[in-house]
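User: For this week's homework, look closely at the record that follows, marking any run of repeated tokens, and judge whether sequence predicts the tokens.
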Amino acid sequence: MEFLDPRLSEYAENHTTPETELQQKLNRDTYANVLIPRMLSGHLQGRVLSMFSKMAQPKTILEIGTYTGYSALCLAEGLAEGGTLITIDKNEELEDMVKQYFADSDHSNQIDFRVGNALEIIPSIGEEIDFVFIDADKENYSNYFDMVIDKMPAGGIIVADNVLWSGKVLDEGQLEKDFETRELDKFNKKIMADERVENVLMPIRDGLMVVRKK
């Protein structure tokens, strides 16, 4: 997941606005107590998500894949007044931890945490969605895109994480044998071919596909 020289990564973080105290606490808690802590967005990517959200000032954010709630806390910082962040995850084991951190957040009354299958929950969302962050099961990235794009206004933003998949998308052997790698490559190509959107793939951490609906 790390493509830059570690010293450059450290320099970038040292010259990026710090995490909030609550985010720092959640970062440490995740690495100390949760399996696969590298799934956490972390300081630099978290500030990128916060910046995108603050620039867009969305009324409604949809996050697909909550994990321990770090990225949701970052995204919520940019919500418009009275706005809502809906975040979905199927992992019930982390539910109590996530709910506690959301309760401790300044945006607690704006975060709607739903436990379940996103493929089943998304169709029930009736409101227009201004900003979507996809960071869940890689084989369904294309399905998630198809489910949300028509719910979004012109100018709506979609950000998808892990689209470089530790560089595996460049490995023909991985593309042939690994289903997740193949599906992520298909997703990247799908976005490139969709005339409804414009996009940029940013090599930040494990790759962020940033999409804007025209």
Q: What stands out?
A: The longest strand covers residues 84-89. The CA atoms of residues 45 and 204 lie 7 Å apart. The mean pLDDT is 96. The two ends are 30 Å apart (CA to CA).
